[in-house]
Amino acid sequence: MRAAVLTAYNAPLQISEIPDPAPGPGEVLVRVAASGVNPLDTKIRRGAAAHAKMAPPAVLGIDMAGTVEAVGAEVDHFGVGDQVFGMTGGVGGVAGSLAELATVDARLIAHKPTALSMEQAAAIPLGFITSWEGLVDRAGVAAGHQVLIHGGAGGVGYLAVQLALARGAQVFATGGPASQEVIRRVGATPIDYTASTVDDYVDEHTGGEGFDIVVDNVGGATLDASFTAVKRYTGHVVSALGWGTHSLAPLSFRGATYSGVFTLLPLLTGEGREHHGHIVAQAAALADARRLVPRLHSATFALGEVNDAYQVVENGSATGKVVVQPHA
To answer: Which pTM was predicted?
Structure first.
Protein backbone atom coordinates (compact mmCIF):
# COMPACT_ATOMS: atom_id res chain seq x y z
CA MET A 1 0.00 0.00 0.00
CA ARG A 2 0.97 3.65 -0.34
CA ALA A 3 1.56 5.68 2.80
CA ALA A 4 3.00 9.03 3.83
CA VAL A 5 6.02 8.11 5.92
CA LEU A 6 7.93 10.24 8.42
CA THR A 7 11.57 9.40 7.61
CA ALA A 8 13.20 12.21 9.63
CA TYR A 9 11.96 15.00 11.88
CA ASN A 10 11.34 18.38 10.26
CA ALA A 11 11.55 16.85 6.79
CA PRO A 12 8.79 16.38 4.21
CA LEU A 13 6.74 13.20 4.54
CA GLN A 14 7.71 10.66 1.89
CA ILE A 15 5.12 8.78 -0.18
CA SER A 16 6.29 5.16 -0.02
CA GLU A 17 5.12 1.64 -0.78
CA ILE A 18 5.00 -0.35 2.48
CA PRO A 19 3.54 -3.80 3.31
CA ASP A 20 -0.22 -4.05 3.80
CA PRO A 21 -1.08 -4.45 7.49
CA ALA A 22 -3.21 -7.30 8.84
CA PRO A 23 -5.62 -7.00 11.77
CA GLY A 24 -4.74 -8.75 15.00
CA PRO A 25 -7.12 -9.74 17.79
CA GLY A 26 -9.44 -6.87 18.68
CA GLU A 27 -8.52 -4.95 15.51
CA VAL A 28 -10.12 -4.15 12.17
CA LEU A 29 -8.45 -3.36 8.87
CA VAL A 30 -9.78 -0.11 7.42
CA ARG A 31 -9.41 1.25 3.91
CA VAL A 32 -8.83 4.89 4.78
CA ALA A 33 -11.00 7.35 2.86
CA ALA A 34 -10.00 10.47 4.77
CA SER A 35 -7.39 11.52 7.33
CA GLY A 36 -7.89 14.71 9.32
CA VAL A 37 -4.85 16.93 9.89
CA ASN A 38 -4.53 18.49 13.34
CA PRO A 39 -1.96 21.05 14.50
CA LEU A 40 -0.58 18.24 16.68
CA ASP A 41 0.16 16.18 13.55
CA THR A 42 2.42 18.92 12.25
CA LYS A 43 4.21 19.21 15.61
CA ILE A 44 4.87 15.47 15.58
CA ARG A 45 6.37 15.77 12.09
CA ARG A 46 8.71 18.47 13.38
CA GLY A 47 9.71 16.36 16.38
CA ALA A 48 8.26 19.09 18.62
CA ALA A 49 5.68 17.01 20.53
CA ALA A 50 7.58 14.94 23.10
CA HIS A 51 4.31 13.82 24.70
CA ALA A 52 3.17 12.22 21.43
CA LYS A 53 6.42 11.42 19.65
CA MET A 54 6.58 8.99 16.73
CA ALA A 55 10.03 7.57 16.00
CA PRO A 56 10.93 7.54 12.29
CA PRO A 57 10.11 5.67 10.14
CA ALA A 58 6.45 6.07 11.01
CA VAL A 59 3.03 6.65 9.47
CA LEU A 60 1.39 9.73 10.98
CA GLY A 61 -2.29 10.76 11.04
CA ILE A 62 -4.40 10.85 14.21
CA ASP A 63 -7.98 11.03 12.87
CA MET A 64 -9.56 8.88 10.18
CA ALA A 65 -12.69 7.68 8.45
CA GLY A 66 -12.98 4.71 6.14
CA THR A 67 -14.47 1.30 5.36
CA VAL A 68 -13.76 -1.97 7.17
CA GLU A 69 -12.01 -4.47 4.87
CA ALA A 70 -11.21 -7.26 7.35
CA VAL A 71 -12.01 -8.09 10.96
CA GLY A 72 -9.66 -9.65 13.48
CA ALA A 73 -10.53 -12.17 16.15
CA GLU A 74 -12.59 -11.02 19.14
CA VAL A 75 -14.34 -8.24 17.18
CA ASP A 76 -18.10 -8.70 17.01
CA HIS A 77 -19.54 -5.19 16.60
CA PHE A 78 -18.02 -4.32 13.20
CA GLY A 79 -18.17 -6.18 9.93
CA VAL A 80 -16.66 -5.98 6.46
CA GLY A 81 -18.17 -3.03 4.59
CA ASP A 82 -18.98 -0.97 7.69
CA GLN A 83 -18.09 2.70 7.47
CA VAL A 84 -16.25 3.81 10.61
CA PHE A 85 -14.36 6.76 12.10
CA GLY A 86 -12.26 7.60 15.12
CA MET A 87 -9.01 8.85 16.63
CA THR A 88 -6.94 5.77 15.94
CA GLY A 89 -3.17 6.34 15.90
CA GLY A 90 -0.34 8.58 14.81
CA VAL A 91 1.00 9.06 18.36
CA GLY A 92 3.12 7.06 20.78
CA GLY A 93 4.20 4.47 18.23
CA VAL A 94 0.69 3.56 17.04
CA ALA A 95 0.57 3.63 13.22
CA GLY A 96 -1.58 6.45 11.85
CA SER A 97 -4.06 7.08 9.06
CA LEU A 98 -2.00 8.68 6.29
CA ALA A 99 -2.07 5.43 4.35
CA GLU A 100 -4.38 3.52 2.07
CA LEU A 101 -4.94 0.90 4.79
CA ALA A 102 -4.73 0.97 8.59
CA THR A 103 -5.25 -1.57 11.34
CA VAL A 104 -7.09 0.03 14.24
CA ASP A 105 -8.16 -1.01 17.71
CA ALA A 106 -11.91 -1.62 17.39
CA ARG A 107 -12.45 -0.06 20.82
CA LEU A 108 -11.45 3.36 19.42
CA ILE A 109 -13.95 3.63 16.58
CA ALA A 110 -17.67 3.95 15.93
CA HIS A 111 -19.92 3.67 12.89
CA LYS A 112 -19.65 6.78 10.73
CA PRO A 113 -22.64 9.14 10.86
CA THR A 114 -24.73 8.72 7.74
CA ALA A 115 -25.38 12.46 7.59
CA LEU A 116 -21.70 13.27 7.04
CA SER A 117 -19.22 12.54 4.27
CA MET A 118 -16.02 10.63 4.97
CA GLU A 119 -14.13 13.92 4.90
CA GLN A 120 -16.46 15.49 7.44
CA ALA A 121 -16.29 12.43 9.71
CA ALA A 122 -12.48 12.49 9.67
CA ALA A 123 -12.57 16.11 10.83
CA ILE A 124 -14.35 15.28 14.08
CA PRO A 125 -12.62 12.76 16.41
CA LEU A 126 -9.75 14.57 18.19
CA GLY A 127 -11.62 17.85 18.54
CA PHE A 128 -14.86 16.25 19.67
CA ILE A 129 -13.24 13.85 22.12
CA THR A 130 -11.32 16.74 23.67
CA SER A 131 -14.53 18.75 23.94
CA TRP A 132 -16.53 15.88 25.43
CA GLU A 133 -13.88 15.05 28.02
CA GLY A 134 -13.81 18.67 29.12
CA LEU A 135 -17.44 19.70 28.90
CA VAL A 136 -19.21 16.45 29.78
CA ASP A 137 -16.79 14.23 31.71
CA ARG A 138 -15.11 16.99 33.76
CA ALA A 139 -17.57 19.91 33.90
CA GLY A 140 -20.94 18.16 33.56
CA VAL A 141 -22.35 20.71 31.14
CA ALA A 142 -26.14 20.88 31.25
CA ALA A 143 -29.14 23.05 30.46
CA GLY A 144 -28.99 26.40 32.20
CA HIS A 145 -25.21 26.65 32.24
CA GLN A 146 -23.49 29.69 30.78
CA VAL A 147 -20.43 28.38 28.96
CA LEU A 148 -17.48 30.39 27.67
CA ILE A 149 -15.35 28.70 25.01
CA HIS A 150 -12.04 30.29 24.08
CA GLY A 151 -11.12 29.91 20.41
CA GLY A 152 -14.67 29.21 19.25
CA ALA A 153 -13.78 29.21 15.54
CA GLY A 154 -10.87 26.76 15.96
CA GLY A 155 -10.83 23.06 15.26
CA VAL A 156 -11.68 22.07 18.84
CA GLY A 157 -13.67 25.16 19.83
CA TYR A 158 -16.03 24.96 16.86
CA LEU A 159 -17.08 21.45 17.88
CA ALA A 160 -17.17 22.38 21.58
CA VAL A 161 -19.67 25.14 20.85
CA GLN A 162 -22.00 22.67 19.12
CA LEU A 163 -21.66 20.10 21.89
CA ALA A 164 -22.46 22.64 24.61
CA LEU A 165 -25.46 23.90 22.65
CA ALA A 166 -26.71 20.34 22.13
CA ARG A 167 -26.54 19.81 25.91
CA GLY A 168 -28.76 22.84 26.46
CA ALA A 169 -26.19 25.42 27.55
CA GLN A 170 -26.06 29.11 26.66
CA VAL A 171 -22.76 29.48 24.81
CA PHE A 172 -20.33 32.37 24.37
CA ALA A 173 -17.09 32.09 22.43
CA THR A 174 -14.02 34.26 22.02
CA GLY A 175 -12.19 34.92 18.79
CA GLY A 176 -10.49 37.65 16.82
CA PRO A 177 -12.34 40.08 14.54
CA ALA A 178 -12.23 37.68 11.57
CA SER A 179 -13.83 34.90 13.64
CA GLN A 180 -16.89 36.76 14.88
CA GLU A 181 -19.25 35.81 12.06
CA VAL A 182 -18.13 32.15 12.10
CA ILE A 183 -18.87 31.98 15.83
CA ARG A 184 -22.24 33.68 15.36
CA ARG A 185 -23.25 31.28 12.58
CA VAL A 186 -22.45 28.19 14.65
CA GLY A 187 -24.81 29.44 17.34
CA ALA A 188 -22.69 31.09 20.03
CA THR A 189 -22.56 34.71 21.15
CA PRO A 190 -19.22 36.00 19.79
CA ILE A 191 -16.75 37.92 21.97
CA ASP A 192 -13.92 39.83 20.30
CA TYR A 193 -11.08 39.35 22.77
CA THR A 194 -9.09 42.11 21.05
CA ALA A 195 -11.80 44.67 21.83
CA SER A 196 -13.04 43.58 25.27
CA THR A 197 -11.23 42.89 28.53
CA VAL A 198 -12.15 39.87 30.63
CA ASP A 199 -13.89 42.15 33.13
CA ASP A 200 -15.82 43.78 30.28
CA TYR A 201 -17.31 40.59 28.88
CA VAL A 202 -17.90 39.00 32.27
CA ASP A 203 -19.88 42.10 33.26
CA GLU A 204 -21.76 42.29 29.96
CA HIS A 205 -22.81 38.65 29.70
CA THR A 206 -23.01 37.41 33.30
CA GLY A 207 -23.66 40.58 35.29
CA GLY A 208 -20.22 40.21 36.84
CA GLU A 209 -20.98 36.75 38.25
CA GLY A 210 -18.72 34.78 35.89
CA PHE A 211 -19.41 31.82 33.61
CA ASP A 212 -20.43 28.42 34.95
CA ILE A 213 -17.90 26.68 32.69
CA VAL A 214 -14.89 28.12 30.88
CA VAL A 215 -13.19 25.98 28.21
CA ASP A 216 -9.62 26.92 27.28
CA ASN A 217 -8.35 25.68 23.91
CA VAL A 218 -5.52 28.22 23.68
CA GLY A 219 -3.37 27.94 26.82
CA GLY A 220 -0.93 30.49 28.20
CA ALA A 221 -2.44 33.86 29.03
CA THR A 222 -5.86 32.65 27.90
CA LEU A 223 -5.88 30.03 30.66
CA ASP A 224 -4.90 32.73 33.16
CA ALA A 225 -7.83 34.83 31.90
CA SER A 226 -10.12 31.83 32.32
CA PHE A 227 -9.37 31.75 36.05
CA THR A 228 -10.79 35.26 36.40
CA ALA A 229 -13.82 34.69 34.13
CA VAL A 230 -15.31 31.73 35.98
CA LYS A 231 -18.20 31.86 38.42
CA ARG A 232 -17.53 31.96 42.15
CA TYR A 233 -17.85 28.70 44.12
CA THR A 234 -19.52 26.56 41.46
CA GLY A 235 -17.53 27.58 38.37
CA HIS A 236 -15.27 25.12 36.58
CA VAL A 237 -12.37 25.75 34.18
CA VAL A 238 -11.21 23.01 31.78
CA SER A 239 -8.16 23.20 29.56
CA ALA A 240 -6.51 20.96 26.98
CA LEU A 241 -3.39 23.14 27.01
CA GLY A 242 -2.66 23.71 30.69
CA TRP A 243 0.99 22.80 30.32
CA GLY A 244 2.70 25.98 31.48
CA THR A 245 3.29 27.52 34.88
CA HIS A 246 0.21 29.35 36.10
CA SER A 247 -0.85 31.09 39.28
CA LEU A 248 -3.90 29.40 40.77
CA ALA A 249 -4.55 32.34 43.07
CA PRO A 250 -7.28 33.97 40.91
CA LEU A 251 -9.09 30.63 40.71
CA SER A 252 -8.64 29.89 44.40
CA PHE A 253 -9.90 33.30 45.45
CA ARG A 254 -13.09 32.57 43.49
CA GLY A 255 -13.50 29.17 45.16
CA ALA A 256 -13.73 27.60 41.70
CA THR A 257 -12.25 24.40 40.28
CA TYR A 258 -10.00 23.32 37.40
CA SER A 259 -9.55 20.15 35.32
CA GLY A 260 -6.95 19.28 32.73
CA VAL A 261 -7.78 17.24 29.63
CA PHE A 262 -5.17 15.03 27.95
CA THR A 263 -6.99 13.41 25.05
CA LEU A 264 -4.10 11.18 23.95
CA LEU A 265 -3.90 9.05 27.11
CA PRO A 266 -5.89 6.04 25.80
CA LEU A 267 -3.67 5.84 22.71
CA LEU A 268 -0.50 6.23 24.76
CA THR A 269 -1.41 3.89 27.62
CA GLY A 270 -4.02 1.53 26.21
CA GLU A 271 -6.33 2.41 29.10
CA GLY A 272 -9.81 3.86 28.51
CA ARG A 273 -10.02 3.13 24.80
CA GLU A 274 -13.62 1.94 25.07
CA HIS A 275 -14.59 5.39 26.33
CA HIS A 276 -13.17 7.01 23.20
CA GLY A 277 -15.27 4.66 21.09
CA HIS A 278 -18.31 5.67 23.13
CA ILE A 279 -17.54 9.36 22.64
CA VAL A 280 -17.24 9.15 18.86
CA ALA A 281 -20.50 7.16 18.83
CA GLN A 282 -22.08 10.14 20.62
CA ALA A 283 -20.61 12.41 17.96
CA ALA A 284 -22.20 10.25 15.26
CA ALA A 285 -25.58 10.46 16.99
CA LEU A 286 -25.36 14.25 17.21
CA ALA A 287 -24.30 14.51 13.57
CA ASP A 288 -27.20 12.33 12.43
CA ALA A 289 -29.52 14.54 14.50
CA ARG A 290 -28.12 17.55 12.59
CA ARG A 291 -26.59 18.96 15.79
CA LEU A 292 -22.90 18.53 14.83
CA VAL A 293 -21.19 19.54 11.58
CA PRO A 294 -17.46 20.23 11.28
CA ARG A 295 -16.05 23.18 9.37
CA LEU A 296 -13.82 22.00 6.52
CA HIS A 297 -11.04 23.79 4.69
CA SER A 298 -12.00 24.96 1.22
CA ALA A 299 -9.86 22.29 -0.47
CA THR A 300 -9.01 18.65 0.20
CA PHE A 301 -5.67 17.04 -0.56
CA ALA A 302 -4.58 13.76 -2.13
CA LEU A 303 -1.96 11.61 -0.38
CA GLY A 304 0.72 12.94 -2.72
CA GLU A 305 -0.17 16.47 -1.60
CA VAL A 306 0.16 15.69 2.12
CA ASN A 307 3.03 18.13 2.64
CA ASP A 308 0.91 20.91 1.13
CA ALA A 309 -1.85 19.98 3.57
CA TYR A 310 0.56 20.16 6.50
CA GLN A 311 1.83 23.53 5.29
CA VAL A 312 -1.70 24.97 5.23
CA VAL A 313 -2.16 23.95 8.87
CA GLU A 314 1.26 25.20 9.93
CA ASN A 315 1.01 28.61 8.30
CA GLY A 316 -2.46 29.30 9.68
CA SER A 317 -4.16 29.74 6.30
CA ALA A 318 -6.73 26.96 6.78
CA THR A 319 -10.38 28.03 6.57
CA GLY A 320 -11.44 24.91 8.49
CA LYS A 321 -10.25 21.39 9.18
CA VAL A 322 -7.76 20.13 6.60
CA VAL A 323 -8.38 16.62 5.28
CA VAL A 324 -6.19 14.28 3.21
CA GLN A 325 -7.77 11.63 0.97
CA PRO A 326 -5.34 8.68 0.67
CA HIS A 327 -7.19 7.21 -2.34
CA ALA A 328 -7.66 10.44 -4.28
So the answer is: 0.97
